[in-house]
Amino acid sequence: MKTRLLKCLFFIVLVRPLVILLIGLNVYHRERLPKDGPHVVIANHNSHLDTMVLMSLMPLRLLWRTRPVAAADYFLANRWLSWFSRNVLDIIPVQRRGRAGQAHPLQGCFDALDAGNILILFPEGSRGRPEQMQPLKRGISHLLRDYPQVGVTPVLLRGLGRALPKGEALLVPVNCDVAVGEMLYLESDEDAFMTAIEACFRQLAPLCTAGVWRDQTPE
Amino acid sequence: MLEIPPHVQWVVGCVVVLLAVASVISIAMVKLQPQRDHTELRQRIRSWWWMIALLFMALLFNRTVAIVFFAVLSYLALKEFFSIVPTRLMDRRVLFWAYLAIPVQYLWVGMGWLAMISIFIPVYVFLFLPVRMLLIGETRGFIRSAGVIHWMVMLAVYCLSHLGALLMLPVTNAQAGYVGPVLFVLLMTQLNDVAQYIWGKSLGRHKIVPKVSPGKTWEGMVGGCITIVIVSALLGPWLTGLSAAMSALAGGLMAVCGFFGDVVISSVKRDLQIKDTGRLIPGHGGLLDRLDSLIYTAPIFFHFYHYLGGGVA
Questions:
Q1: What's the DSSP call for residue B308?
Q2: With an 8 Å Cβ cutoff, are B273 and A26 in contact?
Q3: Where does the record place the Phospholipid/glycerol acyltransferase domain (chain A) (predicted)?
Q4: Of A173, A209, A212, the CB nearest to B79
Q5: Which long-range contacts link B244-248 to residues 24+ away (Cβ below 8 Å)?
Q6: In Å, how far is A212's CA from the nearest CA of chain B?
Q7: Which of A87, B73, B226, B268 ranks highest by number of CB atoms within 10 Å?
Q8: What are the residues facing A40 on neighbouring strands?
């Protein structure tokens, strides 16, 4: 309960105003965002702002159930970050390198789906080079193997890697594009599922216009 | 209680009545043609209510609030520019410094230091930005970035800050107060957009710049110009210290400049192959889509009014 309150306060008082004023979002197909859990939202990952932006898009009644899946070795690295990650963001920690004899590395995610939560997951794994998409990892299909009824919504983010790229501490305001894709389900074929996700990201790309230089051929 | 000058009260009343009429018409259209999609029209009008409410609240409260309001507008406009016009990723810190030009420029505005308002961005920011860029040490794309970044600061910050500068001029018409001249520019610029659109739609034959903005015709331009000259001649003496003849001249200037501002931003959008500059204002697109004409009319009217119109400092 305390965590929920902290989380909602943090987002209402701090994150939402900052996202509106310092970043500014052009949201495409907002109506496709999940209406209820359990659900998984996946997005490309260029910036620490990604999680904040995705969570600030969630309506309040879903916000307290929306939890980012994050690497334990990074987000639980020290006391302060750990407290913040657990109590304010309410992350689902995942061990990047599973050790033998431990519980399933995705156990936390399974529990969260069982509890009807909305997971935020970055299938690229980590924040890559600014504004470039890396190949998707297959964790998402491992996760959904036993949850064929849980929908996946891909979201393409463009511009946040300019506002706050990896390794930078200075935020520079630029409007960012958020394009929400159609919901997908994992049917039997995992390869087809991964292909469908990649295709969805590709289809969303033309909606995003933030700072892309298209060279023009003179007529 | 706020002391709103009588002429300004009239103008505010007229604008609210006009908007109310537009709202009634849109509701009637929805009732009469339920099969057609009126979402955009309704969004546009709702956004107009919001814009007008925010603008009047900011302008009528006091000078400081009005100046902060224009500073925020400049910030949002610059942010929109930086978002659509591609810059090098390594120029992030240069963009950051470019943003810092906003509080400084509006500080000069608040001080009423006209000389500094006029030279700070064209001289000092212009010289400073390339220096900050060369510290990054990458020379590829240097020229384009230097030009593009400064041009955007000029349009979004320098030009728009003249709206704030108008507030600081000595009041020459007590019936309209410090708000009068600003209201005059805003009203004439917006009315010019509407008038050129209506004249162009009804009589438009000969395109001016077919490749950039196919909707712009000589008929629309001339019709709009005549309309604005007439309305300005009537309204100018009411809201500013200008005579009717000078007001008409100012109106003609604003009609021509407003057209150019509109087409310049259209050219930017054409070059980037985008339809709108953003999605900030539902039904309208981005803020720059709304401010395009003002970027040109604000500084031109300021100079006309201050140096030729007898608004003596």
A1: I
A2: no
A3: 39-160
A4: A173
A5: B246/B308, B246/B309, B246/B310
A6: 6
A7: B73
A8: A119, A152
Cα radius of gyration (chain A):
17
**Pick from A24, A209, A211: which is nearest to B87 by CB?**
A211
Test A216 with B273 for CB contact under 8 angstroms: yes
Instruction: Confirm or reject contact between A173 and chain B (CB < 8 A).
Output: yes
Confidence of residue A210 (pLDDT cuts 50, 70, 90): low
> Looking at the partner chain, which of B95, B271, B278 has a beta carbon nearest the beta carbon of A175?
B278
Taking the CA of residue B237 and the nearest CA in chain A, the distance in Å comes to: 39
CB-nearest to A175 from B79, B271, B273 is B79
- Domain residue ranges of chain A, discontinuous segments joined by +: 1-11+24-95+104-207
Q: Write out the residue range of the structural domain in which residue B74 sits.
A: 63-168
Look at B84 and A210 and tell me if their CB atoms are within 8 Å: yes
pLDDT band at A99 (very low <50, low <70, confident <90, very high): low
| Closest residue, chain B, to A21 (C-alpha) | B76
pLDDT of residue B310: 63
Are B216 and B194 part of one and the same domain? yes
Q: Which CATH architecture has domain A1-11+24-95+104-207?
A: 3-Layer(aba) Sandwich (3.40)
- The amino acid at residue B287 is L
Query: Does residue A52 surpass a pLDDT of 90?
Result: yes
Label residue A178 exposed, middle or buried (CB < 10 Å: 0-12, 13-18, 19+). Answer: buried
Chain B positions touching A217 (Cβ under 8 A) are: none
One domain, residues B263 and B216: yes
Which pair of structure tokens corresponds to residue B304?
């006309």
Convert the pLDDT of each residue in B167-213 to its tens digit.
999 998 999 999 999 999 999 999 999 999 999 999 888 999 998 88
Q: Please, which pLDDT band fits residue A216 given cuts at 50, 70 and 90?
A: very low
Which residues have CB under 8 Å from A183's CB, separation 6+?
A: A32, A34, A151, A152, A153
A162 reaches B (C-beta below 8 A): yes
| pLDDT over 90 percentage in chain A | 54
pLDDT at residue A5 is higher than 80 = yes
Q: Which residue of B has its CA nearest to A160?
A: B83
Mean pLDDT of chain B: 93
